[in-house]
Amino acid sequence: METLLWQVEQLAGLLAVSRSGQVRDWDPPTLDRALQWGRYFQHLHGRFRAHPRLRAALGQRLRRGQQGPPLGFGHLGRCPELLGLALLGNRALPPAACHRLLRSLLLPPSDQATPGPCSLSLLARRRAAAQLLLPPSPAQARPEELEQEQSLRTEAQLLLSRLQEDEEEEQGPAGVLEDLPRPRVYWVLAALLLEQAGDNAGREGASWAEHREGPRPAAAVLSWLLGDPGRLSVFCRLLPGSLLVALSARYPQLGTPYLHLLTSWGSRLRYDPLSGQWASSRCPSEDELSWEELRERFSCFMRGPAPLREAALASLKNLKIQDGDFEVCGLSVWTDLLLEMDAPL
What we know:
This protein is mainly alpha-helical and about 350 residues long. It has 19 helices and two strands.
């Protein structure tokens, strides 16, 4: 039993290596051994899922000393897909090993069950197909940026897997999300929402509710974010405006609260006649924006889809009217924003 527990404990290390630079030394046989470990973990999941005591022991060992999204027993069953997704996004993987990986994902064993419409297996196959079809592009980002992006995507996939597992067991997302380290959790949630939005947009047969509200894991994450003003404020304050507008375009229920936060932050700015600029309070808090950042975030709305652009413009005009409908600089922050963005007054 101790040997089995030790083997299960290696799952976290396997996933960590798969998204690190260590894979640059992998050849096809090394990749095959890693994928074989993934299938072995999946086999353990199928073997012990009907034994509650063993499930609990294995899950406890998986969670021991872990950082980031916690691993659970359900991750054993999804290990081949999680491993494949991590490797697909790792640009350090050599071409020969990458070709073997694509082949293993696109041509799975004949006895493997057909993946469901929202499964990680289908997501992995779609990602593999997309990577095979897209032409190679030159690396434009710095290595540390690529590593950070891949780490976020992998954490988002792990979190998605855990949320799906909890959904199957009729548990809410709050317990898992509350345990994740801040503020890292907000970046991981943004990555998860983008992944889910892209998967749902391209999936045939999705219901009207799914297209409008997003897949169920995304809906659960949004409910958790929107259910607490403090969480939503930190989420919107931390992420860049371009990313929040992209998320708002995919999840309309996020756009209006984010716009309300922007107007709340903007209302705290005061005009300094000596410098001729809008400034925050003398003791600015984390809930305040500078004039430059407020302008940039509203500019992201103006560059976004028409519904978001029109909503932001209508909000600014309404606030301008409430301030006295001035059309000269320095009297209303909303007038000055409209002037800065060359929007009609």
